[in-house]
Amino acid sequence: MPPHSGAAVSRIVAGIAGGTVLVSVAGDGTRPTTDRVKEALFSRLESMNMLDDVRVLDLYAGSGSLGVESASRGAKSVQLVESDEKAAAVCQRNAELINKVLGSKKVTVQRSRVETFLMRVAEAGVEEWDLVFMDPPYPLGEAELSAVLDLLGPRLSSYAIVVVERSARTPEPSWPASLELLAERKYGETRLWFAEPSAV
């Protein structure tokens, strides 16, 4: 996601590193997750027992705020994937910050296109995630999003949750056969879709 030249400030809402200030990026192609949406999202995930000791993947990570929040709240490992050079650098700074607070290296950063990253992981066949955040940039089309979800499906644990965050005016994603809609929530101009692996 191309960041704006001026970086805004966000924070970790709760957990071990609650209150820690992060650097965020913003611009025409980005939609930073507000604290209100973040609080609602993580409250729901907590009620689903989807934060403690889970393996997290944050795609189109931007500043990495969702992944870093997960680390603060007990995630086992977090991978941030971002293709833009400046945004990936912000991800790296925030990863280093949270890792220092936690005294670990649980948050890592991959500078890569999401499709390339997922295809590489599929070929290796070693990664599997329990919780995936996807906050694609505005220009990403529905067909492209569906293709990414299709690549992601086989790399999920049986109890995984995928959270897709988009504009409230955006249509529901076209889910591949490997995923099915679990819930949908709207917060102002933001809509969240929660999906899980299909039963079949």
Overview in brief:
The chain has five helices and nine strands. With 200 residues, it is of the alpha/beta class.
Can you offer a commentary on this structure?
The chain has one domain: Vaccinia Virus protein VP39 (Rossmann fold, 3-Layer(aba) Sandwich), CATH 3.40.50.150. Helix content is 30%, strand content 30%. It has five helices and nine strands, in the order ββαβαβαβαβαβββ. The protein has a seven-stranded mixed beta sheet with strand order 5-4-3-6-7-9-8. It is globular. The protein starts with 7 loop residues before the first strand and ends with a strand. 42% of the residues are buried. The N terminus is likely disordered. It is an enzyme of class 2 (transferase). One of its GO terms (molecular function) is 16S rRNA (guanine(966)-N(2))-methyltransferase activity. Its EC number is 2.1.1.171. This is 16S rRNA (Guanine(966)-N(2))-methyltransferase RsmD.
